[in-house]
Amino acid sequence: MPIETFSPIAASPLAGCLNGPEIDAPTRTGTIRLCCPVDFPGFEGHFPGEPILPAVLQLMAVRLLAETMAGTSLDSVGGERLKFKGMVRPAEEIMVRVCLHKDPELLRADFSLEREGSKVASGTLVFRPTGAA
């Protein structure tokens, strides 16, 4: 499905936190801005008095960008070299960058989350198109 007709972002719990994406199809790279407001439900209980965005929601932003770039739903297969080096706080703008690489049956999404040029998280998520065996 072409990128123009497939966008999982609008239906995502992160929809109100994401701005973009910008995709460069020839290089298979994409970026999206992540900025969650103070009242975003993902901060609840994580942690009282010191809210930070859980890693699972940071990885959801990577997945949503990868799905948009691939033009299809993706199933997670695994992760490699996942590093979380900083905290994402309410109202902070984070740039999510993904570069997709296609193996015979899998898609590898090399990613980084950056705040003002400094990496907050990085690694590789591995996906298989939904329904592929």
Task: Produce a short descriptive summary.
The chain has one helix and six strands; from the N terminus they run E-E-H-E-E-E-E.
Explain the overall architecture:
There is one protein chain. This protein is mainly β and 133 residues long. It has one domain (3-129): Hotdog Thioesterase (Thiol Ester Dehydrase, Chain A), CATH 3.10.129.10. The chain is 12% helix and 41% strand. The chain contains one helix and six strands; from the N terminus they run ββαββββ. The longest helix is centred in the middle third of the chain and has 16 residues, at 55-70.
Features:
single chain; 133 residues; mainly beta; Thiol Ester Dehydrase, Chain A; 6-stranded antiparallel beta sheet; 1 helix
Which helices and strands occur, and which strands form pairs?
Layout (H helix, E strand, L loop, with lengths): L17 E7 L4 E6 L20 H16 L3 E11 L9 E9 L4 E9 L2 E12 L4
Antiparallel strand pairs: 1-2, 2-4, 3-6, 4-5, 5-6
CATH topology category name: Thiol Ester Dehydrase, Chain A
User: In CATH's first tier, which class applies?
Assistant: Alpha Beta
Q: What is the CATH superfamily label? A: Hotdog Thioesterase
Mean pLDDT score, rounded? 91
Strand proportion, as a percent range, falls in: 35-45%
Q: Cα-atom Rg, whole angstroms? A: 14 Å
Give helix % range.
Answer: 10-25%
What's the overall geometry? globular
Q: Could you tell me how far the N terminus lies from the C terminus, measured between alpha carbons in angstroms? A: 19 Å
Strand order of the largest sheet: 1-2-4-5-6-3
The major pleated sheet works out as: 6 strands, antiparallel
Helix and strand content put the structural class at: mainly beta
| Secondary-structure element string | EEHEEEE
Give the second-level CATH assignment, the architecture: Roll
What is the number of independent domains?
1
Q: Which regions have little confidence, pLDDT < 50, spanning 5+ residues?
A: 1-5
Q: Tell me the number of helical segments per DSSP (H or I, 4 or more residues long).
A: 1
Count of DSSP strands = 6
